[in-house]
Design brief:
By secondary structure, the protein is an alpha+beta fold. The chain is about 35% helix and about 25% strand. A 9-stranded mixed β-sheet has the order 2-1-3-4-9-5-6-7-8, with no helix packed on it. The longest helix has 26 residues.
């Protein structure tokens, strides 16, 4: 495969085996054996020297991850002078940035975000929260809570927006649970046949309950930090 690719590339660039060996800083016999397929498993260092001499990646030299249109563009690029190559790189960078922005825009979706009032160490009163819409690319997120204090830092800091998935937490995950008229941020732990809601940094009260008694807003699935 490497010999076939090398014959193709050098033929397109009108470079002889001797010239290429000099470009690579490799013995002529080494290059000739690879060129004609006599060496089927050359050293990695040898292939890397060849790729560097041709100003291409090893994958490209080996004929991987490069389809016909891409190969055509690469050949045009190699044939350009310094100014032409700069223009191609600038255009490619602009187009790639624009394409990424379009992909990101397609992936965003709106979810409600709860804005609790006051400190959060005693829990939040769900019904009294202001609600605003935010955008996120986290697919599992269906609701969010903005942190109004550093009570749970460094895990969750003030002004963090904690994204929540609409599912019951697994062992060791964080979630907002309803206890009475408030929702509390706790770590869910299954231990000794009980379901424990462990407080974070000794903030608040720890609860041990039956699973059927547990209600939750959602389970942590991401965080937005500014």
């Amino acid at each position: 495969m490497l010999g076939t690719r090398l014959r193709e590339i050098l033929g397109n660039m009108d470079i002889s085996i001797g010239e290429f060996a000099e470009m690579c800083g490799l013995p002529l016999e080494t290059v000739r054996n690879i060129y004609y397929g006599k060496t089927s498993d050359p050293k990695v260092s040898t292939v890397l020297q060849m790729a560097n001499a041709l100003n291409m990646s090893v994958n490209n030299l080996m004929g991987q991850y490069c389809n016909a249109p891409e190969e055509k563009i690469l050949n045009y690029y190699r044939a350009c002078g310094k100014h032409g190559k700069s223009l191609i790189l600038l255009t490619a960078k602009y187009e790639a940035t624009a394409a990424k922005a379009e992909r990101d825009a397609d992936e965003y979706h709106k979810i409600p975000c709860l804005l609790p009032s006051g400190e959060m160490n005693k829990g939040i009163i769900y019904d009294s929260c202001e609600i605003v819409d935010i955008e996120t690319t986290v697919k599992d997120a269906f609701v969010a809570v903005k942190m109004t204090s550093n009570d749970f830092a460094p895990i969750f800091c003030k002004d963090d927006i904690v994204l929540l998935a609409n599912r019951f937490p697994l062992n060791g995950e964080y979630a907002f649970f309803y206890i009475g008229d408030r929702a509390h941020l706790r770590k869910f732990v299954e231990e000794d046949g009980l379901y424990k809601l462990q407080c974070i940094h000794n903030i608040g009260e720890e609860f041990a309950m039956k699973r059927m008694e547990l209600e939750y807003i959602g389970t942590y699935c991401g965080v937005v930090r500014t």
